[in-house]
Amino acid sequence: MERLLIGVTVGYMLKVLKSGKSTQELKKEFDSIRHGDYQEFIKLIGGPMPFIARYDQGEIISGHLPPLEDDIEFELLLKAAPSLRIFLFRCYQNYGILTDLDVTDELFQQLALFEISLRIHAKNDKLTNANEKLHLVIEALKKHRNLSSLDTENLHQGRRFLNMVKHDNGQFDSWNDGVSAFNIAFETMQRTNLGY
Questions:
Q1: How far apart are CA 59 and CA 67, in angstroms?
Q2: Which has fewest Cβ within 10 Å: 18, 45, 72, 76?
Q3: DSSP 3-state percent helix, strand, coil across the chain (nearest 5)
Q4: Mean pLDDT across the stretch 89-112?
Q5: pTM to 2 decimals?
Q6: Under DSSP, is residue 122 helix (H, G, I), strand (E, B) or coil?
Q7: What angle do CA 109, 113, 152 make, to 5 degrees?
Q8: Average pLDDT of the residues of the chain
């Protein structure tokens, strides 16, 4: 699996959440990036803008362009990359290297990409806003993409496992059961063209 900076960063924060450590100091930053509010995240972190060239109404514009309301999600994610690096460094400073015996680092990254991908697809299709609950995001995608009941339930099972990681609320009888359900959800996301 190709490692994406956003997956590594948010995956690490999910690992912190599962560990039970307090995230209060970085809560606003984590919430903004997890919900796909890249403009807010960039504002909170203050990383430099990378050089970008874009085609806009017949004109090529280039430079260190600030995030704009009409930027597509991919462009905002590119603009957020320097802030993501700074944020990841701050996270490591606060929490250090963490070991988890139940969930691999790769799976933490997939969990991050699962939520972010579903939110990006819903936002790009103008189905939901940035702070919508994930179960409503899945339901909106179900209607818009005509997902089967089985595919929708698989995505909800992935959401339940994500909630188990975030809140340790026992959504599954064991971590292994949750991992198995999430693997099916992640495959479903990819197969239904809702992946990254």
A1: 18
A2: 72
A3: 65, 5, 30
A4: 94
A5: 0.85
A6: helix
A7: 125
A8: 88
